[in-house]
Amino acid sequence: MLSPAAEKIINDYFNLPLPGIANVRCPYFNNSRANQRGQLRALTGKGTPNEIIAEAKIISLQYKSGLFCKNGDCAEKNDHTGAPFTADEVVKFLVDHNLGIECSGFVSQVLRAHFQETKKIDFTKKMFIVPPSHLLRWLLAKLRPIENISVRVLADDANSNHVIGGAIGYNYENVLPGDVVIMLDTGPLGKRNHILLITAKTGAIINYVHARAWTSEGRYNHGVSRGTITIMNPLKTLLEQTWTEKELSGDKNETFIEAKQARILEIKRLKV
Amino acid sequence: MPSIFAVGLLHQSLFFLILSTVVTFLLAPLLTKILYKYKIVRRADFDYTLQGDRSEKAGTPIMGGLLVIVVVIGITMLFNWDRRYTYVPIGAMTIAAVLGAADDLLNVFGGKRRLRTVKNKFLLIKVHKKWYMKLWHAITVPWTALHEFTSMFGSKQGRGLQAHEKLLLQFAAGAVTAWWVYTRLGESWHSIWIPFDGSVYIGWLIIPIIIFFVMFTANAVNIADGLDGLAGGSLIVAFAGLMALSWVEGRTAFTPFNATVIGSLIAYTYFNVKPARFQMGDVGSLGLGTLLAINAIAINKILLLPLLAFIFYIEIFSVILQVLFRRLLGRRLFKMSPLHHHFELSGWNEEKIVMRFWIIQAFMVIVALWIALR
């Protein structure tokens, strides 16, 4: 199991700590389209649940969206209907204002909480991001590690070891909570990367969480999500196991499709 | 030794104060009418700050600071014109005010500016057919780079003067002041007064210091001019401090000069408190910010500026820190900058913020006086 602090932060992403409104799942947001440079963590898809909520409060107060009362403490009623704001309305607000989390940001934030509790270290400061020869990038990465940790950084052999895949082969007994499922060069064009975080392994079932946006979910229904990989064929590849998410398996499960499209699909463990 | 018995100078200065107050009061309705007639008002359609609670400010005339600038120039030129002392402060203030006026007018009437990035420039150098245009784009790359750098510290509205253009003109105002202080005011201004410790001779180094303080203070006042009455009231207190120091030191040109500014600001602030009849605009804030710095420099109290302009400096530092936190650490220090917006978002109403800032400003001016008179 992951540490209680990591579990808490995962739960906070699934149920953002908004006063007065429950079950607001953090939506997915990837900065590659908005391309905000040198921006706040929360506006680049790398923020903690609290940072995302703090930014939502400021935007709501600044533009008088009515989501929070004047001191920013509580959610108010909808001005038009008089009814309290629903979780869907809050999610719509977050998506419309580019607030959310992306896959590597989510995994980094959870693992940071996990390692801070279990090993008393901030793993983001131990990551190899860019070499010191690229002085400016190196300095920026030191100042803002979370923002500079991408899937490729986590997948780098300098930062993580193979557990499944690569030269190691397939021994699913080695998989532990805190390991990550890496998908490199995936998507229809092979230009995306994706990462899942393994939260538990019970017998033949691997539980994972990730931040993603399935195409079938439309503009507002995406966000952090849970799924399982059931090891049906212990000696075979990850693609030959059963991936289930939102009760969908096989090609209806877009996470599985993404895994199929990946040039590299492996499970790795961070060198911390 | 302070000439504390110069009652005549005080009496004369108070006359200037009363005169400028009355003149400003009389001219205020006329200016308001002109500003409304030519629709020199804040427009919500492209002023992104006029959201939510602030939307009521849309339609309020801007450039109200012109009133103070015109009255101060008029009274000083008519009754207190001194080639050695007052004409350069008036000149530098006018440069800054003209710059501010251009910005105000372009913000209201100007079209959207085409703002190129350095990347665009290099592309143009590469693809342009005409050699002289390639050369032009190559020469102007540093200017564009300066624009890109300065735009990181402010909003990107695409209208009015941009930060890098303002900085150039503010530099001109600072340079005029530095030239005047260095060449005209005499050897004693080549030394910088140090609180509690006499003075230190710094020679020509006074020039960049003066330019820096003039530019910094002008921008600080400009940034603080975000709530009704805030800049006006705080400036009254700051100039009152300068007037008191000038009077105590028996400066016959600067005591009535500062009194004139105070008088005009009293009338201006009367109309500017919430709900404002008009707002200062860049014409007033840049002009008066420049003048505040110059008048402190002119009485050789440059190091007291952080206290005399305390609220303004706090406001500008809040912006600088916010930008540094945002860019370097990816998080906010304040909910919003400048600082008065942080308190607004924290639930304080506008009047409470303005009055507390006035009180803090008054206290810090008293501290400045205590230090200066020690």
List the helices and strands of chain B in order: HHHHHHHEEHHHHHHHH
Terminal Cα span of chain B = 11 Å
Compute the number of strand runs of chain B.
Answer: 2
Measured by DSSP, the beta-strand proportion of chain B falls in: under 5%
How many alpha or pi helices of chain B? 15
Rough outline of chain A = globular
> How many domains of chain B?
2
Which structural class matches the secondary elements of chain A?
A: alpha+beta
**Which strand-content bin applies to the residues of chain A?**
15-25%
Biggest pleated-sheet summary of chain A: 8 strands, antiparallel
Give the strand tally of chain A.
Answer: 8
Query: How would you sum up the global shape of chain B?
Result: globular
Helix content of chain A: 25-40%
Estimate the helix proportion of chain B, in percent: 55-70%
Average predicted confidence as pLDDT of chain A: 90
Would you kindly provide a written description of the structure presented here, covering whatever features stand out?
- The complex is a heterodimer of chains A (272) and B (374).
- Helix content of chain A is 30%, strand content 19%.
- Chain A has 272 residues and is α+β, with helices and mostly antiparallel strands.
- Chain A has a domain at 16-101.
- Chain A has an 8-stranded antiparallel sheet.
- In chain A, strand 2 and strand 3 (192-202) form a beta hairpin.
- In chain A, helix 1 (4-14) packs antiparallel against helix 5 (103-118).
- Chain A is globular and about 60 Å long.
- The mean pLDDT of chain A is 90.
- Chain B is mostly helical.
- Chain B folds into 2 domains: 7-110 and 163-373, no CATH class; 116-155, no CATH class.
- Chain B has helices spanning 7-37, 65-79, 87-109, 118-127, 131-139, 141-151, 163-184, 206-224, 230-248, 254-272, 281-298, 305-308, 310-329, 339-345, 350-373; strands spanning 191-193, 199-201.
- In chain B, strands 1-2 form a two-stranded antiparallel sheet.
- The longest helix of chain B is centred in the first third of the chain and has 31 residues, at 7-37.
- Chain B is globular.
- Chain B starts with 6 loop residues before the first helix and ends with a helix.
- The chains are: A alpha+beta (272), B mainly alpha (374).
- The A-B interface holds A 38-41, 44, 46, 51, 54, 58, 61-64, 70-72, 143-144, 146-147 and B 51-53, 55, 152, 326-332, 335-336, 345-347.
